[in-house]
Amino acid sequence: MKYISSLILLMLVLTACEEVITIDLNEENPFVVIEADLQEGIHHFDVYIKQTKSYFQVGTEPLVNNASVEITNASGETQQAATVEPGIYRFENYEAITGETYELNVKVDEQQFIAKTTVPSKPILDSLNIEFEEASPFQEEGYSVYLNFLDPADEVNYYRILYALNDTFQNTPEDLILVDDQLLNGNPVNIPIFVNTFQLDDAVDVDLRNIDQATYNFYATLSEIIINMGGGNSAAPGNPITNISGGAIGYFGSFSNAKARIVVE
Question: How far apart are the C-alpha atoms of 168 and 181, rounded to whole Å?
Answer without folding.
Answer: 28
